[in-house]
């Protein structure tokens, strides 16, 4: 299993402050919790980019999958970067040494959720994705070119 990623980095306490913790009686399961917290972590690490996250569980309930997509526009994060951020939610990730605040990977996953499979891939951008990307790169106050009317 040489293709396993390096040890995942547990998010900092500042990043975890915006995340949802598991609690008794919560309607979110481990996968739903991982989905909500993965979205929040991606917002922190890659501001301005919209990620689409889908959570699925196999029909017999044995395998949980978290699928993450985003438009592959100029300036968008690469697949390796997104995978590195989300590896903390992967059930089969290598255990990490507890961070300075004492939170190891197993404690993190018990608190913030986990998934058995992580499917991470950029998707072909739609025209509106490209427009948003172009608009984001314009300097404040610059005018946006308009299409001539026919």
**Which strands sit side by side, in order, in the main sheet?**
1-2-3
Could you tell me the strand content as a percent range?
A: 5-15%
Average pLDDT number: 77
So what's the overall shape? elongated
User: In the residues, how many domains can be counted?
Assistant: 1
Distance between the termini: 59 Å
Note the total helix count: 5
What does the main sheet amount to? 3 strands, mixed
Uncertain spans, ≥5 residues at pLDDT below 50? 1-5
What structural class is derived from the secondary structure elements? alpha+beta
Helix and strand sequence = HHEEHHEH
Round the Cα radius of gyration to an integer and report it. Answer: 18 Å
| Beta strand count | 3
Helix share, percent: 25-40%
What topology does this entry show?
Elements: H1 13-16, H2 30-45, E1 52-57, E2 64-71, H3 79-86, H4 105-112, E3 117-123, H5 127-137
Parallel strand pairs: 2-3
Antiparallel strand pairs: 1-2
Describe this structure in words.
The chain has 150 residues and is α+β, with helices and mostly antiparallel strands. It has one domain (13-126). It is built from five helices and three strands, in the order ααββααβα. The chain has helices at 13-16, 30-45, 79-86, 105-112, 127-137; strands at 52-57, 64-71, 117-123. A three-stranded mixed β-sheet has the order 1-2-3, with helices on one face. A hairpin with a 6-residue loop joins strand 1 (52-57) and strand 2 (64-71). It is elongated and about 55 Å long.
